[in-house]
């Protein structure tokens, strides 16, 4: 186990869709100041050179805040810059292969939409699971909806921590109380907000209240 439950309370996933002329670095710094506990760099269209450059800068920033820094999809880049870990989906490299490549110390997160996928990912060495979309989301076009019942069943079926993702925000995080999750993973609830730092503070405290229920 390479990450603790408390690291996963408010997991921020980056998205350059809402940069509005600002740098991603600056937006990530705001979520870190506001109390994000985990950062995933998610780049879908950046060339290799810029991806690496950016990843190194944000890695350094996360180190300053003592927050784990992981990369979406790109196992090679994770190894090259010695990031804390990687997050893979069901269509990316399989968790066992990722573990074989990165060794025992890196954090491996896996997206799961069913109990079977969740159990399999744990067996193959995942450290945590991202389960969703738990609510409708406009952020990921091909997101599959996972109901709250399935979310709960997954939490009961595995012993690694689970984060809920997809359409989660200040207005609905409370609905996840009692599901067994360790935290939430969000994009637009932080990065699409006019005051990112304040939105992060607010969502962190609402998430802690939800988890305490
Ligand atoms: N995986 C499942 S839903 C989703 C991802 C990456 C999008 C989450 O974005 P938002 O804005 O928090 O709904
Ligand atoms: Mg992926």
Automatic annotation (TrEMBL):
It holds the Pfam family TMP-TENI. CDD domains: TMP_TenI. Belongs to the thiamine-phosphate synthase family. Binds 1 Mg(2+) ion per subunit. Its EC number is 2.5.1.3. Keywords: Magnesium, Metal-binding, Thiamine biosynthesis, Transferase. Pathway: Cofactor biosynthesis; thiamine diphosphate biosynthesis; thiamine phosphate from 4-amino-2-methyl-5-diphosphomethylpyrimidine and 4-methyl-5-(2-phosphoethyl)-thiazole: step 1/1. It comes from Ruminococcus hominis. It is an enzyme of class 2 (transferase). 4-amino-2-methyl-5-(diphosphooxymethyl)pyrimidine binds at residues 40-44, 72, 111, 140. Residues 10-190 form the Thiamine phosphate synthase/TenI domain. The keyword Magnesium applies. This is Thiamine-phosphate synthase.
